[in-house]
Design goal:
Blueprint: H1 3-8, E1 11-15, H2 23-27, E2 31-37, H3 46-55, E3 65-70, H4 76-94, H5 108-128
Length: about 130
């Protein structure tokens, strides 16, 4: 995965931000919308694309486009940096493959100890019973 190549494939769009901010909100387009087309990407292999589709299935649109928004700051440049970092973290998490768990055997000594303890408890309970006088 080449980060510079992926960043070059991103599409940014500046939009007017919503919420409080007075007259500044009506004049300045500080909100940044990032879109990434997974199918058109040249920097990812087919295996990586498939992995991203499965791991981040809820984040992609029906056309396999990832859309992220950021309007945290009043500066368009800072919002662009924030949304780019968020995108890269999301891609790294999507490409993560967990290790396969290996099943371990229970040692024979542990099994023997468990059976010995069960027998010991059984003998203790047997000794607590009333004697049979028949």
């Amino acid at each position: 995965m080449d980060i510079e190549k992926i960043i070059s494939e991103l599409n940014f769009k500046a939009v007017r931000s919503s919420g409080a901010g007075g007259q500044n909100v009506n004049k300045v387009s500080s909100k940044v919308v990032l879109s990434f087309d997974l199918n058109a990407s040249q920097s990812l292999t087919e295996e990586e694309k498939l992995l991203l589709k499965t791991n981040l299935a809820t984040r992609f649109t029906s056309e396999d486009i990832l859309i992220l928004n950021c309007d945290e700051d009043r500066s368009q440049l800072k919002n662009k940096d924030i949304v780019t970092k968020r995108f890269l973290e999301l891609i790294k998490k999507g490409l993560y493959v967990p290790k396969v768990r290996k099943a371990t055997k229970i040692p024979k000594s542990v099994i023997k100890k468990r059976i010995k303890d069960k027998k010991n408890i059984s003998e203790i309970k047997q000794s607590r019973r009333k004697p049979n006088l028949d």
